[in-house]
Amino acid sequence: MQVASNTLQHLLEFYHKQLDPLHGADEATSMFYEACTQLLSKSKAELSKSLHYRLQQSELVILYDQAKAMAKGIPLHYATGKAFFFDSEYEVTPAVLIPRPETEELVHHVLKSRAYLRLLDIGTGSGCIAITLSKHLPMASVIGVDVSADALAVASKNNQRLNTQVVFQLVDILDTASTGKLPLFDCIVSNPPYISDEEKHTLAPHVIHHEPHLALFSGNDALLFYKRIIDFSAQHLEQHGSLWFELNPLTAEAVLNYAHASQLFKEITLIKDITNKDRILHAIKK
Predict the structure, then answer these.
(1) Residue 1: pLDDT band by 50, 70, 90 thresholds?
(2) What are the residues whose beta carbons fall under 8 Å from the beta carbon of 191, sequence distance 6 or more?
(3) Hey, which bits of 95-221 come out as E strands?
(4) How would DSSP label each residue in 9-54?
């Protein structure tokens, strides 16, 4: 092991040696503190004042291995196996997307809208959307669906660990035979795959090489999943029910136009995120 001692100070120096060439010094420092915060359950402020703290050997080995993994380009949250979303910590693996702040904004808008009772999360991944909605809407029944059995295994673990009652099902939203048995909902939420093949080159290498392509890419048609879910809403979203999407700002207007053309909705709204980009669509069914 190439760490001079088991103090946090020497581990920080090791992180810089491993991660500076790929990520730069500032990012390496941030990754060190986040990894330590997750494992040691201490805040960054506490850790920065305690760099003399001596880690147990088991802690040192874990943090050492995580640094070596990140030095290979593996995202921090896959290296640690954990990600924080909304108000809870989730297990994450390369089978699921790492939860993003934009998705937290989506959930925030859903929760402040009204107290839904029957919710569906399409493309549930780690289950972070469905589980958060279930936690904050205790009277609601929530179903999360995904085409990936590996993703559902992660979601189920999070569901159990966070003591929520979401029902997870293996469903291919593009297959009408697969979706036909789903019931009627008063709220459908989705952060679907929305990156077209043409946009792949715009993504950071660690995203392309490590995050699940099933959850990222929509093929040649960037609107594929949006169109299908809007069409699905014709039969599975109740009158006056809400459809919520996280959007790719580059195709937000096109999704809005398709929703209008469907003539299913009496009200459709685009909502900007904290960076002032069109990020969320809310449509209320006639």
Answers:
(1) low
(2) 103, 106, 123, 125, 129, 245, 246
(3) 118-122, 141-146, 167-170, 185-190, 195-196, 217-219
(4) HHHHHHHHHHHHHHH-HHHHHHHHHHHHHHHH---HHHHHT-TTPB
With a cut of 90, say whether residue 193 has pLDDT above it: no
**What pLDDT was estimated at residue 202?**
53
Strand stretches in the chain, DSSP E: 82-85, 88-91, 118-122, 141-146, 167-170, 185-190, 195-196, 217-219, 237-246, 265-272, 278-285
Q: Longest Cα pair distance anywhere in the chain, in angstroms?
A: 66
Q: Is 111 within 8 Å of 137 (Cβ atoms)?
A: yes
Q: 176 CB contacts (<8 Å, ≥6 apart)?
A: none
pLDDT band (50, 70, 90) for residue 177: confident
More confident residue, 244 or 216: 244
Name the nearest CA neighbour of 30 among 41, 17, 42, 19. 19
Q: What is the per-residue pLDDT across 11-50, written as a single tens digit (0 to 9) for each?
A: 899 889 999 998 899 999 999 999 999 899 888 898 888 8
Q: What gap in Å lies between CA 90 and CA 151, rounded to an integer?
A: 13
Length of the chain: 286
Among 74-83, 123-132, 177-186, 208-217, the range with the most confident prediction by mean pLDDT is 123-132
Quick one: residue 75, left, alpha or beta (phi over 0 = left, psi -120 to 50 = alpha)?
beta
Q: By C-alpha distance, which of 59, 76, 104, 102 is closest to 278?
A: 102
Cα–Cα distance, 49 to 37 (Å, whole number): 13
Q: Which of 140, 94, 105, 148 is nearest to 123 (CA)?
A: 148
